[in-house]
Amino acid sequence: MGAWSAEPFGNDTVADWAWELDEAENWDLVLDALTGVLEEEPASIDADVASVAIAAAEVVAHASGAPTQSDVYTESVTAFVERLPNPPQGIVPVALSALEIAASPQGELAELWSDAGSEAWAAAIARVRESLSAAR
Predict the structure, then answer these.
(1) What are phi and psi of 95, to 5 degrees?
(2) Can you say whether residue 6 is alpha, beta or left, with left for phi > 0 and alpha for psi between -120 and 50 degrees?
(3) Which of 11, 15, 86, 89 has its C-alpha lying 20 to 30 A from 117's C-alpha?
(4) Which residues, including other chains, have CB under 8 Å from residue 7's CB and lie 6 or more apart?
(5) Distances, alpha carbon 33 to alpha carbons 49, 115, 119, in Å
(6) Closest CA to 27 of 79, 81, 74, 101
(7) How far is CA 65 from CA 41, 60, 74, 78, in A?
(8) Rounded CA gap, 115 and 98, in Å?
(9) How far is CA 54 from the centre of its chain?
Protein backbone atom coordinates (compact mmCIF):
# COMPACT_ATOMS: atom_id res chain seq x y z
CA MET A 1 0.00 0.00 0.00
CA GLY A 2 2.96 2.36 0.51
CA ALA A 3 1.39 4.15 3.48
CA TRP A 4 3.30 6.46 5.77
CA SER A 5 0.27 7.57 7.78
CA ALA A 6 -3.35 6.63 8.32
CA GLU A 7 -4.55 10.06 7.19
CA PRO A 8 -6.51 10.38 3.92
CA PHE A 9 -3.43 11.70 2.09
CA GLY A 10 -0.97 9.31 3.72
CA ASN A 11 -0.09 6.85 0.96
CA ASP A 12 1.61 6.67 -2.43
CA THR A 13 -1.54 6.11 -4.48
CA VAL A 14 -3.28 9.15 -3.08
CA ALA A 15 -0.14 11.28 -3.33
CA ASP A 16 -0.04 10.50 -7.05
CA TRP A 17 -3.75 11.31 -7.38
CA ALA A 18 -3.24 14.61 -5.54
CA TRP A 19 -0.86 15.75 -8.28
CA GLU A 20 -3.77 15.52 -10.70
CA LEU A 21 -5.59 18.16 -8.65
CA ASP A 22 -2.91 20.65 -9.72
CA GLU A 23 -4.07 20.36 -13.32
CA ALA A 24 -7.81 19.95 -12.68
CA GLU A 25 -9.99 22.65 -14.19
CA ASN A 26 -13.19 21.53 -12.46
CA TRP A 27 -14.49 19.12 -9.82
CA ASP A 28 -14.78 16.13 -12.19
CA LEU A 29 -11.65 14.42 -10.83
CA VAL A 30 -13.09 14.49 -7.32
CA LEU A 31 -16.58 13.49 -8.44
CA ASP A 32 -15.20 10.59 -10.48
CA ALA A 33 -13.28 9.29 -7.46
CA LEU A 34 -16.39 9.50 -5.28
CA THR A 35 -18.92 8.08 -7.72
CA GLY A 36 -16.52 5.34 -8.79
CA VAL A 37 -17.27 3.43 -5.59
CA LEU A 38 -20.96 4.17 -5.17
CA GLU A 39 -22.30 1.26 -7.21
CA GLU A 40 -19.75 -1.26 -5.97
CA GLU A 41 -19.89 -3.85 -3.24
CA PRO A 42 -17.28 -2.91 -0.61
CA ALA A 43 -15.58 -6.31 -0.83
CA SER A 44 -14.95 -5.82 -4.56
CA ILE A 45 -13.26 -2.42 -4.29
CA ASP A 46 -9.50 -2.39 -4.72
CA ALA A 47 -7.63 -0.78 -1.83
CA ASP A 48 -6.15 1.89 -4.12
CA VAL A 49 -9.57 2.86 -5.48
CA ALA A 50 -10.92 3.05 -1.93
CA SER A 51 -7.96 5.20 -0.83
CA VAL A 52 -8.61 7.69 -3.62
CA ALA A 53 -12.33 7.84 -2.78
CA ILE A 54 -11.46 8.60 0.85
CA ALA A 55 -9.02 11.30 -0.26
CA ALA A 56 -11.70 12.78 -2.52
CA ALA A 57 -14.02 12.92 0.50
CA GLU A 58 -11.28 14.81 2.33
CA VAL A 59 -11.13 17.28 -0.58
CA VAL A 60 -14.85 17.90 -0.01
CA ALA A 61 -14.14 18.41 3.70
CA HIS A 62 -11.52 21.01 2.75
CA ALA A 63 -14.00 22.77 0.46
CA SER A 64 -16.54 22.74 3.31
CA GLY A 65 -14.07 24.58 5.53
CA ALA A 66 -13.42 21.66 7.87
CA PRO A 67 -10.36 19.72 6.69
CA THR A 68 -9.16 16.85 8.84
CA GLN A 69 -5.64 16.84 7.36
CA SER A 70 -3.68 20.00 6.62
CA ASP A 71 -0.01 19.37 5.97
CA VAL A 72 2.54 19.17 3.19
CA TYR A 73 0.61 16.24 1.66
CA THR A 74 -2.53 18.35 1.20
CA GLU A 75 -0.93 21.38 -0.44
CA SER A 76 -2.45 20.36 -3.79
CA VAL A 77 -5.84 20.09 -2.12
CA THR A 78 -5.53 23.57 -0.64
CA ALA A 79 -4.53 25.04 -4.01
CA PHE A 80 -7.37 23.18 -5.77
CA VAL A 81 -10.00 24.45 -3.34
CA GLU A 82 -8.64 28.00 -3.55
CA ARG A 83 -8.74 27.81 -7.36
CA LEU A 84 -12.18 26.16 -7.51
CA PRO A 85 -13.93 27.20 -4.28
CA ASN A 86 -17.46 26.25 -5.35
CA PRO A 87 -17.93 22.47 -5.32
CA PRO A 88 -20.97 21.02 -7.08
CA GLN A 89 -24.23 21.27 -5.20
CA GLY A 90 -25.02 18.06 -3.34
CA ILE A 91 -21.44 16.79 -3.24
CA VAL A 92 -21.34 16.39 0.56
CA PRO A 93 -23.89 13.53 0.70
CA VAL A 94 -22.10 11.87 -2.23
CA ALA A 95 -18.80 12.17 -0.34
CA LEU A 96 -20.35 10.69 2.80
CA SER A 97 -21.79 7.73 0.88
CA ALA A 98 -18.51 7.12 -0.93
CA LEU A 99 -16.60 7.31 2.36
CA GLU A 100 -18.86 4.69 3.96
CA ILE A 101 -18.43 2.31 1.04
CA ALA A 102 -14.67 2.86 0.61
CA ALA A 103 -14.01 2.46 4.34
CA SER A 104 -16.39 -0.45 4.87
CA PRO A 105 -15.09 -3.18 7.17
CA GLN A 106 -15.83 -5.63 4.33
CA GLY A 107 -13.41 -3.82 2.00
CA GLU A 108 -9.83 -4.66 1.15
CA LEU A 109 -8.50 -1.36 2.48
CA ALA A 110 -10.09 -1.82 5.92
CA GLU A 111 -8.76 -5.37 5.97
CA LEU A 112 -5.23 -4.15 5.24
CA TRP A 113 -5.42 -1.62 8.07
CA SER A 114 -6.89 -4.22 10.40
CA ASP A 115 -4.07 -6.63 9.56
CA ALA A 116 -1.60 -3.84 10.33
CA GLY A 117 -3.13 -3.56 13.80
CA SER A 118 -3.59 0.18 13.52
CA GLU A 119 -6.43 2.05 15.20
CA ALA A 120 -5.27 5.32 13.62
CA TRP A 121 -6.96 4.62 10.27
CA ALA A 122 -10.41 4.12 11.82
CA ALA A 123 -9.91 7.34 13.78
CA ALA A 124 -8.94 9.23 10.61
CA ILE A 125 -12.05 7.92 8.82
CA ALA A 126 -14.20 8.97 11.78
CA ARG A 127 -12.79 12.50 11.60
CA VAL A 128 -13.60 12.79 7.88
CA ARG A 129 -17.09 11.41 8.52
CA GLU A 130 -17.69 13.93 11.33
CA SER A 131 -16.41 16.82 9.22
CA LEU A 132 -18.66 15.93 6.29
CA SER A 133 -21.67 15.30 8.55
CA ALA A 134 -21.26 18.76 10.06
CA ALA A 135 -21.15 20.25 6.54
CA ARG A 136 -24.51 18.80 5.52
Answers:
(1) -65, -40
(2) alpha
(3) 15
(4) 68, 69, 71, 73, 124
(5) 8, 25, 25
(6) 81
(7) 30, 9, 14, 11
(8) 23
(9) 2
CB 126 within 8 A of CB 54: no
Sequential pLDDT tens for the chain (136 residues): 588 999 999 999 999 999 999 999 999 999 999 999 999 999 999 999 999 999 999 999 999 999 999 999 999 999 999 999 999 999 999 999 999 999 999 999 999 999 998 799 999 999 999 999 999 7
- Of the candidates 12, 37, 56, the one whose C-alpha atom is nearest the C-alpha of residue 104 is 37
Query: Rounded to whole angstroms, how far apart are CA atoms 50 and 69?
Result: 17
Neighbours of 76 (CB within 10 A): 19
* Number of C-beta neighbours around residue 15 at 10 A: 15
pTM confidence score: 0.96
